[in-house]
Amino acid sequence: MNKKSNPDLIRNIGYLVRVNKPENTSFLTLLESANEKNPQKFIRDMMTNGVVIARKSTKEVIVHEQLLAVLIEHRTIFKRMINLVRNEDPSYKVSLDEVIKLISQALLKV
Question: Which domain holds residue 84?
């Protein structure tokens, strides 16, 4: 017996789709570009969302984390520079504040 509260969510309807060779090649290319190994999940995402967003590879995740760490480090360095030149020339502080703001905005986008 089904234990789901909504019986409409049961995946019990199957479809058989026949494709020719060029269509199959195109489908497999799309499947590969989305980093999907399961065609059913890929098709389900395409039907529900219209778009399948590819998962990031391990290398991309590592590069992303390194970029984030570098941006945070640079922001910290610029904040320290502001503390050093705060009493010397206020124009330096304003320009460094702008740089920090730009870095912070870039961090939010990442």
Answer: 58-109
* Nearest to 82, CA basis, from 103, 61, 68, 64: 103
Statement to judge: residues 63 and 89 lie in one domain: yes
Is residue 36 domain-shared with residue 68, that is, in the same domain?
no
User: Model-level pTM?
Assistant: 0.43
The verdict on residue 75 lying in a domain is yes
pLDDT tens column, 32-72: 887 777 888 878 777 777 776 777 788 888 988 998 888 88
Place of tokens 């409409």: 8
By the 10 Å C-beta count (0-12 exposed, 13-18 middle, 19+ buried), 69 is classed as: exposed
> What length is written for the chain?
110
